[in-house]
Every structure is written in C-alpha cells, then in structure tokens.
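Q: How would the structure tokens look for this protein?
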Amino acid sequence: MAQPLAERLRPKTLDDYIGQKHLVGEGAVLRKMIDAGRISSFILWGPPGVGKTTLAQIIANKLETPFYTLSAVTSGVKDVRDVIDKARNNRFFNQMSPILFIDEIHRFSKSQQDSLLGAVETGVVTLIGATTENPSFEVIRPLLSRCQLYVLKSLEKHDLLELLQIAINKDVYLNKKNIVLKETDAMLRYSGGDARKLLNILELVVEADGASDEIVITDEKVVERLQQNPLAYDKDGEMHYDIISAFIKSIRGSDPDGALYWLARMVEGGEDPAFIARRLVISASEDIGLANPNALLLANAAFDAVMKIGWPEGRIPLAEATVYLATSPKSNSAYEGINGALELVRATGNLPVPLHLRNAPTKLMKQLGYGKDYKYAHAYEGHFVNQQFLPDEVKEKRIWHPQENAPEIKLKERMRLLWGERFND
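A: Here is the predicted structure in token form.
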C-alpha cells in the first residue's frame, strides 16, 4: 500500500521546506544555527501540520548526527532512559550530541520530563520537542529553562497553494494524472493552515475521481467528498481543534446549548480535562472580561476543582463554568486593549519612561531628576491626582476603550469623572 501523500511529500531539505520563514528563511535564527552546524535544545510550538516533525528530521539530516525519536503518547520513563543510554554510548569525542526528538512533549508526565533534565543539561542529547499546547502550561519549568522556544505559525494561503502545485506536479502518483485546480477556496478553508490536512483532502478528492481522464477540482466537489467521508481529512485527530473552536465560539456567541454539546463531545471523546479548563479561563478573560469579572473567578475555580476531583465528576464544574460563561454578558475590551498596546509599543519602540515615574534608589538618580514631581495618588482626595503616565510621544493616546455593558459603562463614567475630556469618546 502506498504511503499517504503527506508522507510522500515530506521535504528532506530546508530548500524544500514550506513556510516558517521567520525561523528558517535566509538569516533567520534556526537557519543560522543549522548552517553553523551546531544547535542547542529547543521546543517547537505550533498547531498541527505546520512542519514541526519535518523540521526536526531536516536538522538531523543536515547535521548528520544520530537521531532518536520518542512519542510521548507511547513512551514511558524507561524508554527515555534507554534512549539516553544509547545516546551516551554512541557519542564519539568532539562529535555533536545526538538529537532526541520528542513528539507531543506536552503529553509527557512530570516524572518523564524530569528524566530528561540531566541529559539535556550535560549535553548527552540535544532535545527537540514538538507540542501543540502552550509549553508554559505543559513543560516543567527546569526543562523549559534549558530550551529555546520557537513558535511555528499556521501556513498562509500562498504556502498552501504552493504545496498543492508541488503535490500535483512532483508526486510520483499525482503527476501521472491530469489534475486541474479550478477552485481552491474549500480546500484551503477546510485545511485551516494545516499542510497534512490539505494533502489529505487533495488525496481524497483525487482518489474519488481516480478513473477519470481529467480530474477538475472545484469547491463543490471538495465539500461533497468531505461530507461523504468526514474522517478522511482528520486522520491524525485534528478534529480535537475543530471541536474546541466550536466550543469557544458557542460561549462567545452566548449559546449555552451549543457550548454544552461541544463540551459533551470532548468529555465523551476522552479530552484532557485540563485542556478544556484552560480554554475556559482564556475565554473568561478574552470574551467576557470586564462585562462580568466574576467569570474569570469561576473559570479559575472550575480549573482548580477539576484538578482536585478528576474524572468523571470533573465534568460538573466544567459544565457549570461553561453555562456561566455562555450566559454572561460579553466584552473583549481588555483583549483589544492589550493588543492595541502591543501594536503601539511595536510601532513606537522603547520610548523613555517619564522622569517623574522612574525609580530613584540612588543619590545620583535623584540628582538626575528620577522620581521628581511624582504625585502619590493616596495623598490626594479620592486617591487620585491628574498626572501623566504615558511617554511624552504618546501621552494623548487612548488604548482602552470601554464597551457598552453595565459594568464598563460604570467604569467609563468613573474615568470621565477623573480624567474629563480624555474619556469623552
């Protein structure tokens, strides 16, 4: 039986690698390390199908160093120690450390991750971890501190279109067929920036019309094929990401029925309860925010409860938080505020802190005017005094914009009372 299309097209060199130019393009950080012939331990964090495993294999081939692979789904502490022993025994003087690639490292337990520490720290192995989950939550701090973290992005439209052309023109099976890409919107939409999913869809559509002299791919045909065989483009469990997306969007859309349905799908499917709980905490901040600050408290409490009581009872606090968040008023003003602030910082650079806001722990700093004319708010009536808190260059800039819900209207009225014209928009 032939390999799946995605495996047949897996690139062998960086020149054939698609996407992630911020990491492997000319002059980018990983490219420089690879070209120099030495790499340090790092973790690749990104969604499925963006090239994490492929990149690790390309690095191993380029550096011509022993390459060991473990899957966190099937490997235990003993497997980790066995590989480390092999790496230690197979390393020669002045040779670069063997590479240990751990796929889905977020699924490793604390004890499994602990078993890696010594080997990574002493250079017995160079660790490359791949994860679809935030390493800050899933990787223990001592191991994370010993690794660089590189973030991979979903492939962009031009990357995916390039990949389709490569598949049609260069694959040993597809290049024998007369394939016409008349429309691609449906394939791109269903793939969601995932190269493997895109190639799975292409392969499914082509196989369905395999006997035809000419295979014309249209959006209608793609949708029809996927409705007939919905799992064909989900061979590696990416439905996990589609369902959590539907779950969060149901909460954001204030539909408790939809949110509970998708929660049940995750519970029944054996989803990690910590994964669900974290998404609830994020939603409470991003989608409910200041419209109901208690949402974040309840989401955090649900997270704690699930960690304490486990399954199956943990489904109950998750359901409570889900309904509460879905039925709460919505605001993303804090989310928009921090995004706006980040855009401003990136556009304006490292603007100097106004002198009156600077700390002045030394005599010289005081002589230079650090902290001079700062007004201590608690020394004034109402614990407020009008003074400047932004750098001079952006002192008139508004970043937080309250939205039209009862709590934020109240906050806006308070800001108007304190700051006057500044909050009159």
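The chain has a mean pLDDT of 82.

DSSP finds 20 helices and seven strands in the chain.

Upvote if useful.
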